[in-house]
Design a protein that fits this description.
The complex is a heterodimer of chains A (325) and B (212).
Chain A (H helix, E strand, L loop, with lengths): L5 H14 L5 H13 L1 H19 L5 H11 L3 H21 L11 H11 L1 H95 E6 L11 E5 L5 E7 L9 E8 L4 E7 L6 E7 L6 E10 L5 E13 L1
Parallel strand pairs in A: 1-3, 2-8
Antiparallel strand pairs in A: 3-6, 4-5, 4-7, 7-8
Helix pairs in contact in A: 1-3, 2-3, 3-5
Chain B lengths: L1 H24 L3 H21 L6 H22 L12 H17 L16 H13 L5 H12 L3 H11 L5 H12 L3 H25 L1
Helix pairs in contact in B: 1-2, 1-3, 2-3, 2-4, 3-4, 6-9, 7-8, 7-9
Classes of the chains: A alpha/beta (325), B mainly alpha (212).
Amino acid sequence: MKNSSPEENNEKQLMKNYLLGDLSSDEQTQIEEKYFADDSFYQQLKITETELIDAYLCNELDVKEKKKFEEKFLSSKDGKQKVEMTRAFLKSINKITGEKAVLEIPVISNYKRRFVWSESKTLKQFALAASLVILLGGGSWLMFQTIKLQNQIKILENQQSQQQADFQKKEQLLQQKSDTSQKRYEQIKQELDTERQERTLLENEISKLLQKSAQVISMVLTTGLTRDNATTKLLNIPPDAQILQLKLMLEEGVESYSTYQVTIKTVDGKQIWQQKVTDNVKKSINVSVKTVTFSNDDYLVTVSGINKNGEVFELADYYFRVAKK
Amino acid sequence: MKEQIVKQNKDELQRESFEILLKRLNTNQRLAEEKYLIIRNKLTIFFRTRGYSQTDLELADKTIDRAARKLLEQDNNQSENSETQNVLSDSYFLSVAHFVLKEHQRGVKPTVAIEDLPIATNQLAINNNQEQKLIEYEQTELTTKCFNECLSNFPIEQKLLIIEYFSVEITKAEQRQFLADKLGININALRVKAHRLRQDLVKCVENCVKKA
């Protein structure tokens, strides 16, 4: 009674692991070199392969082994062929022995279904017909959906273009309004500017007038007055007065000249102002003198006539006193 | 037209190179063909366990074609009076297989697209493809008939051995041990013997189905 040795068992296990892809790369290389070089080792490997297939078909592999087996063998043409050949062999043996199938070929997951499937013509035809129906149905439904969507798109596009047209109209209206407003604005602005200018002119005139009224004082002087406190005419010059208009009354019978000369001196004899007058003088001579010329003091105004030869003849003297406020 | 010529040239090249390959495997045609099938099977196992299950056969054939073309080049470079070359070892194909594997992993396009290479270029290979057709006869009467016929051709002891060894029983290990003890041989030796008989039986069934 000779059992297999542990070495033989180890070798068998190693080969099984190799066929299931459970070895490292180095271990794989060792096995490969061996079975390519050594025919007896190759024979052992072949037997192990057959036994592995037997075990799979008799449901003797554990879950992990079964999964690896299916990955390796059932995705390979050669592998599948070997499995089917083995199945045929075992089934034939089964028939002879009359044993029930324990050899009920386990469903080779999806692979078996696929294999059986591929062999049934009727099933294929039915599947093809069913697929066509589904495809047609699906296609029609898709087409319907597409048309529906296309219509919706058209409606939306129309709405969009309508909205765009409305928007453009509104924009134009706004633009027109804006233009009108702009014109009106320009017009108003122009009117405003004109009014401002006129106002400015008026204001200037008013101010001039005001200036004139506020800034001129006048005095009438007659001859015969002497310079003394009792009879000297007092002139109060307000601060805002700028011009002193003197009206110098001439006595009757005074010779008339074509040109007169008016001189203003202080009582010290200092001349502070002089002007020639060529107006047609009859009874009085009017002169305008700036008030800044005067300070608080007494003043003498002399009127002289100038003949054609340029000779000057004094005609009258006038006295007044200035008091500035 | 051009494509046809190219394909024709390719086919001729592959036929020529394949014939050289067979000669290098064995001077005997029949043994060379058997050797070829063994090498092909080894290569298939190699590519499958390396994770290329889906293309194991194509890669195996590609390896053989590549090896054959190399041999043809060598042959063309040899002078006419040179001695006969040594028989090719299987390990040579393993080295070519490693190269093909690396190429495949890198995703490098081969000089000749693998789609352009026929799976087989000779009658043997064509016959191999016919094996696939056996799958279609799995549960048919023909298979059963052939199986019975072939089994009947075996001597009674071998017939019993096959049936007893491979029948599905719960205590398979015990039964096999019992058999081994009965025959006075090591369980491993029994194993080898049983599987050899099985291979012969399967071959017989294949041939029987083919003939039918």
